[in-house]
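Notes continue from the previous slide.

Worked example: a multi-chain complex. Inputs as given:
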Amino acid sequence: MRYLPKSDAERAAMLREIGVSTIDDLFAIIPEEYRLKRDLNVPRQMGESEIIEYFKAAAAKNANGYASFLGAGAYRHYRPVIIDSLVQRGEFLTSYTPYQAEITQGTLQAIFEFQTMICELTGMDIANASMYDGSTGAAEAVMMAVRVTGRDNVLVARTAHPEYREVMHTYAQFWERDGGHDAKEVAYGQDGRVDLAALEQAVTEETACVLVQSPNFFGVIEDIPAIAEIAHKKGALLIVSIAEAVSLGIVRPPAEADIVSMEAQSFGVALSYGGPYCGVIAAKEKYLRQMPGRLVGETKDTEGRRGFVLTLSTREQHIRREKATSNICTNQALVALMVTIFMTVYGKQGIRELALQNLAKAKYAADTLGDSSRVGGKVLFTETPRFHEFVLQTDEDPEQLNARLIEKKIIGGLDLRKWYPELGNATLWCATELTTKEQIDAAATVLAQAPVAAASR
Amino acid sequence: MAYPEKYKYTREHEWIEVAGKVGIVGITDYAQNSLGDIVFVDAPKVGTKVEKDAVFGSMESVKAVSDLYSPVTGAVTEVNEDLKSSPEKINSDAHGAWIIKVELSDPSEVASLLSAADYEKFIAEETAK
Amino acid sequence: MATTKGFIGNTRKVTAHLTQNEPLSFEKSSPGKRAYKLAPLDVPEVDAVSLLGGAVRKDDPTLPELSEIEIIRHFTRLSTWNYAIDLGMYPLGSCTMKYNPRVNEFVSRLEGIAEAHPYQPESLSQGSLEIVKLLQDCLIEITGMDAITLQPAAGAHGEFTGILLARAYHESKGNPRKTVIIPDSAHGTNPATAATCGYQVVNLKSNAKGGVDVAALAQMVNEGTAAMMLTNPSTIGVFENEIHRIADVLHDKGALLYMDGANMNALVGKTRPGDFGVDVMHLNLHKTFSTPHGGGGPGSGPVACKTTLEPFLPTPVLARDGDGLLHWNYNRPQSVGRVRMLYGNFGMFVRALAYTLANGPDGLRQTTEDAVLNANYFRKKLEDLYELPYDTPSMHEVVFSDKRQAKNGVKTGDIAKRLIDYGFHPYTTSFPLIVPGALMIEPTESESREELDLFVDAMRQIAREAEENPQLVATAPHSTRISRLDETTAARKPVLRWQGPPENGVELDTAAKEW
């Protein structure tokens, strides 16, 4: 076996030195009846070339050469080449959690830079070293708010990602020793944003937090200052979930929020059929002690030189056990490193320029695909500012529409009927800097050929 | 380190100084020494009800957390705000750096606590184990 | 280097060499430099203010401004400050720092795999789904369980999912029950998980052999017990040979046996949890199945279970249609719900499957055998110098204590730090909690005999140093860029982000100014 650095002779010699005659003597403690006496029924050992062939064949069965307008919490942005070359350095790739600070300063300093950049982008004071992803990060942020306020009721905007909401519900149902907190959803209004009047009614003195996503699932930017005011009036915290990190280049950071839960996949992380991605929680400094996950802090060594360490670890499960702020242990360090490199490459100017391009592409896409005189589609919530996603309502059934697009090697917008049946034949479209005018025009042409639209024209 | 005669002690290593209905609570020098450098004190808010032998807060060193147990039942009347910014005061002066003041609801509870001599005997046994 | 008299070992695995200094990227930044070039816009330009109104960002975030070569050097220099498996043995007990094969990385970056959007139509995702299916089938076979979900993002997330399954199972019988039994030797995530799922934790004291005290367990289990969370082999590297009795005791009262699969790498191909009574368990793909630790993640924590728990698995679950195509089934009325968005850390599935294919049944078994062989070799070669608190047979890791060295004031953490000077990453210190001053050593199968012998040599020399020159060990490491860091100040006065120089020119009193 090519990964095992021993010859049979060496194995035999080591067994002799240990003082046993066969390797099975070392497994003698396993009761006889439970010993596996056959080969596992898994594929036979493959050569490296065969492994590559296997995965190439699998890759070929996925979409290849398609233009895609999918977003919805997983975004296709350009990933600078140096990200992959740097994260594949063995010193990053094959290092462990930096508990031994003297020989993991590389990871520690990079995470410290990550924490700083996340603070800069979100307008928060502190940020952790990453969470699993945006959905679990949102759930952890809610639990954090419940701890901070000592209240149990949670309000979640219906404009937040439906799968984030599902995850929050899973976490909420059993959490808290007294049998779970209660997550209620707040409706959206005609403008595609949280219905402020409904929110005002829903928030009470029992509300731990209000969680909204901005830009929200429809791509619309929520009125954060107004929502913050409503939440804070009753002593509830405001959590802002950000699924599209690139938006922060041009959209005002949610400075009024108490906690920001972000998904940073857009910053240089491959779509990879859903993961690994990179969640992160940022917050106001006063909530530091209730922050879940690892934190890196700056300090000095015995000679007065600057160094970095994992700090405030008494919040965590390995010390506090059942009283920990969270059971989280593993984070997304390597993915956070990708995100850090991405932010370093784009830097102060680039993040804005990139976000602006996304804004322009989405504006053109919405104008083109929503040009009802030509294509029979209608963009919803046009009066509200949005980033790079929009909801398109069509006469045509989304399934049929997408099937026609696929014939032209275009993957259209995400069918929203499963989550928002009230919007009718609605699809969620996304355009990024990688979406070309040609692709948008081609999609519009397909839309314009809709059987229903053609008949009504 | 001498354990002040005027204090009463718990087996969880808290001390209390009682004057009338008010008790001042801290941790013993033995406790601070076994915890090491204290970095954070999590004390209850004023008005919180505390119960004898129940947890009322915690104290953190870099790599350990230790629960704080109340020697008496009552309500917190004052919290030592100084410890927020300077938790190290517990290390330098454990018997001076108090954590909370409690208004006792049952002053007779104090009788069941250890005297300085009993406490010293108790920790001598603990260390010998 | 300390100049104390006494024995100073010969660190023959390593020689000190220079590493580059490197400030924070923010400190290197200067305005106007850039490392990116966007393609020209092919659609009309827009005015952000008119589109976004009050929602437009006014200030620019303080991000570094650097050129590409500077960024390459920045992160390359940082990387050289890390220890890594690629440099040598990383004997962290229970962490399983094995070789991370490079073909795993290669195939996970194939375009059709890396660029697959999770919401692509299932008809255009069959390749991804086939990968998920084959990995699921392999893991079910390896664990001897009946069903699996790959959704959990890491081990602790898997524990959470597994205990939710147990809870849903009990609820379906009318009572969620109240407690989860956890041995005192368990990893901290176990009690944290049980609490997160709304259970009270009942601690079970280990017996004199460091294992489960079955008689005490029998007394403890009752109709309120939802499950026991058991790590097998245990955190002291010992197989619970009474595992069948443990399962029986639990099952008699309707409770479930959850196995923390952190140490599954000691069992693969030799025995199967599903055969010895486990109802639900998680796996750590970043341990047993070689996906990279990456400085702390990403992980992946699949949860396998018996048929009785299958209805409760998170949505969606993978199913094959009559036409042979794979699809996600969302119609699962008894499901505990989602534990994360989408389908899990797919990129890790690709790597774990590549590892499984590279091994095959014979390679997987040999891997387990070599891991156990290596740990027992260490035990044999070091037991005369280091205290062995439990003499039960070791599987994939061996746990010593610092009892003999502590007499000279040298603690497990000091020996660990001194190993750094000898060119090794430290073992796991102070865990499991049932062993005071624990040295938890897991070599994994990835070490050659030469590397093992160098480690043995280092440990033996350190033992002598601890006798003859304890101060040298107690102040280690002596060869690193930085010495021991002031963790107390870091925790008392946390500095968790870089702050630019203040505009009024007043120097802040932070550690940064010493640079």
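Summary box: The first strand of chain C starts at residue 147 and ends at 149. Residues 368-474 of chain C form a domain with the Aspartate Aminotransferase, domain 1 fold (CATH 3.90.1150.10).
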